[in-house]
Design brief:
Strand order of the largest sheet: 1-5-2
Strand content: 15-25%
Largest sheet: 3 strands, antiparallel
Distance between the termini: 46 Å
Number of domains: 2
Helix content: 40-55%
Number of strands: 5
Length: about 120
Amino acid sequence: MRNHYRVLYTRNPDDIMKYREAGLAIYTAACAAFGKENVRHDRPKIPASQAAFPVLEPDERIVSSLLKSDVLRHIPEVAVDTVYIRPELLDAGRAWLNRKRENIIESGSELEDTA
């Protein structure tokens, strides 16, 4: 009978095109609407990495995967952005977000433009 917070918002490419920090804007607005103690924001920093491993060549030599593949040398950063809300507020939170999403994202974008 765990009472974990539930997902209110996850990163969406359409939102990011309008405002790169859409998740942060939604988190900030949700805190104002529902109380900071009822909302959580998870945006882990998962840096870009390189997948280095040995590759056995047909001639029995071993080379680095990074020397064999441009793709493995340039693996992009993973983008994760999730806003959570207390379970008892989930229905109200989703209804609120459906009504306010566009305004919140536009407001965040406008604040960035004036900065």
